[in-house]
Hints:
The chain has helices spanning 14-25, 42-47, 60-63, 71-80, 83-92, 113-126, 183-187, 209-215, 246-250, 252-261, 277-286, 293-301, 307-314, 317-321, 323-331, 386-408; strands spanning 2-3, 7-10, 31-34, 55-56, 97-99, 104-107, 130-132, 135-141, 145-150, 155-159, 163-166, 194-199, 203-204, 218-227, 230-238, 242-244, 265-270, 333-337, 339-340, 348-352, 370-372. By secondary structure, it is an alpha+beta fold.
Amino acid sequence: xxxxxxxxxxxxxxxxxxxxxxxxxxxxxxxxxxxxxxxxxxxxxxxxxxxxxxxxxxxxxxxxxxxxxxxxxxxxxxxxxxxxxxxxxxxxxxxxxxxxxxxxxxxxxxxxxxxxxxxxxxxxxxxxxxxxxxxxxxxxxxxxxxxxxxxxxxxxxxxxxxxxxxxxxxxxxxxxxxxxxxxxxxxxxxxxxxxxxxxxxxxxxxxxxxxxxxxxxxxxxxxxxxxxxxxxxxxxxxxxxxxxxxxxxxxxxxxxxxxxxxxxxxxxxxxxxxxxxxxxxxxxxxxxxxxxxxxxxxxxxxxxxxxxxxxxxxxxxxxxxxxxxxxxxxxxxxxxxxxxxxxxxxxxxxxxxxxxxxxxxxxxxxxxxxxxxxxxxxxxxxxxxxxxxxxxxxxxxxxxxxxxxxxxx
Length: 409
């Protein structure tokens, strides 16, 4: 079977669906989306379970650096489809948004992820874009052709679009369809991929059995973390396997780099980041002698459980008995990181198609007319709205490139 859509979009996540919308709104006929799962947007829906964080309201000057080494490219993508553009897009679908106290942008409480996705799919249908679910991409064929399999019938088909967007995601949360199985298909045409690594994930610590039993899962609030020159603040959750939480996720690039040089890698906790070292030492010197460590920490510094147990786990009795050493530990507590959580548990991944393999419009240099967007590309960003924004912005940017290709081809 052979089909001839004008545009083939492989992958029904945010990047692919937004590209489809932009192309259909521009009047491009024959826009077809092919999604391997039974429904589109599955990772999009899963991401919304922990709080439907669409983007971030921080100033534009702060946004680009969130994408690390890929800042120059993402500043271009963000200028084309900005956080403000994303909010206007949601509003046009009937989904109002607001900026939370943390700067993160959320839909108003009455709107759930499924509401937005449903409105989005209805808009695409009204625009004439076709959605083909349970259609798995099998690889390239010829100059412009693609091979797919209809998973419901087992039928293989060949399509020959004038332009193609690959938006198949990274390699985390494989159950949503983001499984990285596209890597060998690109290798078949000579396109290299950077090996996937976990990003925005928990860090593993070899806690003692006593610590795991006594502490279990417990939060540490209002602290700062440091790995090399990288720092992050927020709340951390102690878990049976180690640490998780927004500041841990933000430091995963630094932790990956540190783990390449040594295992365990050092991560330092500052349990009183708002006190100067001088003020902290003064408070500890004023503490009444003879009190137990838990009482002293609670009454003098308002540090309750599980801080005393954590200090005993990671420091020696002599260090805890000396006020000067204790003060240093409270603001520079070394936590030995043994590794990062498995790839499939990560919120996102680093790795994928390197930017050297695409041109400035995100078209593959080795296959003219084929574009790449979203987490397939080798970039990463912290949680807080930056991941979804990056996917939307690259999808919009690639759609622009595809229109240019159609105009000249």
